[in-house]
């Protein structure tokens, strides 16, 4: 542009408009060079009527971690099968509607456990691969404990062989309305199955089912009694160094109060509760990831079992690096 140009002064470097334009352009360029800060997005809670895609083993988390082995034990009808179906994310095990055990043999299934997936969007990859085992119930109405218990014991032996990945968790399942006497009967049965070893208690988690969000007030006194008295009685009775962890949850699909016509939509409250219960269970199981239960023989001898041997000369032990008092806090 020549000095004779009538717009020379306007377009000169000293013109205020041009200075402002250059400054704005400079600020924009600097802004583009700065790293983008992640935006905080609010949690999106699912509505009870929304469809959630099925979990998949193609999840990145599934490929990065090994399976955790979990077995569920307890009385017939207390919710073992429903709990395992809830963890797997699909109906695999037949649920019981009577005191007669529907499970006549050990059943197993594997999948990716995404505990928060049904309740929060974007949580499908949060979880871990698991292999779960459903067992015949204790206290079968046809008095078949003598038939079932040796089968359960043998399965535990098989899972805890040194060549296997070990048994990470034993879920003792009870209804939240179970009496202290009933709980001790089941725990005594477990203690007999694992005798003479006592260290298996560090892999035990107590899960109380039928703790529906709509029945919080109704079942509150059961929960208080279990946490304040029964838990301490269990610790003293079996000589445990710590109280067994207790998880309270419901495996029933929640129906929104608005859909039922009884009030305003309370899906967020229900999903918060369900997600929190499963998060607690997930945390307790993950604490035991590096401390599976193994079976070994005295003096390193090979394990030998026979059909008429109810107490093989072997002991259930933990890895030598494991210390109940310091390594695991429940």
Task: Set out the fold topology.
Blueprint: H1 16-33, H2 60-64, E1 68-74, H3 80-88, E2 107-113, E3 128-134, H4 145-159, E4 169-175, H5 180-194, E5 204-209, H6 216-238, E6 246-248, H7 257-260, H8 267-287, E7 294-297, E8 314-317, H9 324-327
Parallel strand pairs: 1-3, 1-4, 4-5, 5-6
Antiparallel strand pairs: 2-3, 7-8
Overview of this structure, please?
Keywords: GTP-binding, Nucleotide-binding. It holds the Pfam family AIG1. This is GTPase IMAP member gimd1. InterPro entries: G_AIG1, GIMA/IAN/Toc, P-loop_NTPase. With 330 residues, this protein is of the alpha/beta class. The protein has a single domain, classed as Rossmann fold, CATH 3.40.50. It is 35% helix and 14% strand. The protein has helices spanning 16-33, 60-64, 80-88, 145-159, 180-194, 216-238, 257-260, 267-287, 324-327; strands at residues 68-74, 107-113, 128-134, 169-175, 204-209, 246-248, 294-297, 314-317. The radius of gyration is 29 Å and the shape is globular. The termini are far apart. Residues 5-11, 53-64 and 297-330 have low confidence and may be disordered.
Index terms:
two-stranded antiparallel ribbon; nucleotide-binding; six-stranded mixed β-sheet; 330 residues; Rossmann fold; alpha/beta; 35% helix; disordered C terminus
What is the strand arrangement across the widest sheet?
Answer: 2-3-1-4-5-6
Number of strand elements: 8
Please identify which CATH superfamily we are dealing with: P-loop containing nucleotide triphosphate hydrolases
Number of helices: 9
Largest sheet, described in full? Answer: 6 strands, mixed
The end-to-end distance, rounded to whole angstroms, is 80 Å
Count of domain modules:
1
CATH topology: Rossmann fold
Average pLDDT confidence is 77
Organism: Apophysomyces ossiformis
Domain AIG1-type G: 68-222
InterPro entries: G_AIG1 (IPR006703), GIMA/IAN/Toc (IPR045058), P-loop_NTPase (IPR027417)
Keywords: GTP-binding, Nucleotide-binding
């Amino acid at each position: 542009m020549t000095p004779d140009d009538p717009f020379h002064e306007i377009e000169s470097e000293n013109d205020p408009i041009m200075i402002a334009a250059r400054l704005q352009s400079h600020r924009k360029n600097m802004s583009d060079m700065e790293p983008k800060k992640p935006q905080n997005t609010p949690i999106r809670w699912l509505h009870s009527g929304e469809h959630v895609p099925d979990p998949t083993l193609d999840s990145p988390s599934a490929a990065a971690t090994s399976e955790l082995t979990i077995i569920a034990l307890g009385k017939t009808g207390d919710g073992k099968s429903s709990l395992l179906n809830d963890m797997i994310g699909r109906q695999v095990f037949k649920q019981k509607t009577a005191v007669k055990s529907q499970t006549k043999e050990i059943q197993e299934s594997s999948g990716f456990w995404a505990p928060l997936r049904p309740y929060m969007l974007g949580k499908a990859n949060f979880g871990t691969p698991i292999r779960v085992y459903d067992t015949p119930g204790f206290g079968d109405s046809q008095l078949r404990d003598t038939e079932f218990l040796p089968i359960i014991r043998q399965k535990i032996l098989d899972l805890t062989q040194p060549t296997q990945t070990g048994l990470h968790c034993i879920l003792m399942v009870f209804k939240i309305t179970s009496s202290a006497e009933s709980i001790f009967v089941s725990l005594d049965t477990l203690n007999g199955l694992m005798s003479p070893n006592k260290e298996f208690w560090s892999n035990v988690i107590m899960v109380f089912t039928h703790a529906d969000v709509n029945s919080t007030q109704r079942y509150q006194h059961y929960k208080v009694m279990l946490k304040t008295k029964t838990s301490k009685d269990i610790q003293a009775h079996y000589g445990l160094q710590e109280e067994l962890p207790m998880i309270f949850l419901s495996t029933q699909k929640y129906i929104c109060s608005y859909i039922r016509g009884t009030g305003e939509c309370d899906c967020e409250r229900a999903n918060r509760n369900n997600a929190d219960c499963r998060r607690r269970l997930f945390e307790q199981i993950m604490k035991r990831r590096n401390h599976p239960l193994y079976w070994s023989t005295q003096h390193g001898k090979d394990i030998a079992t026979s059909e008429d041997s109810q107490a093989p000369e072997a002991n259930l032990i933990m890895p030598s690096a494991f210390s109940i008092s310091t390594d695991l806090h429940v």
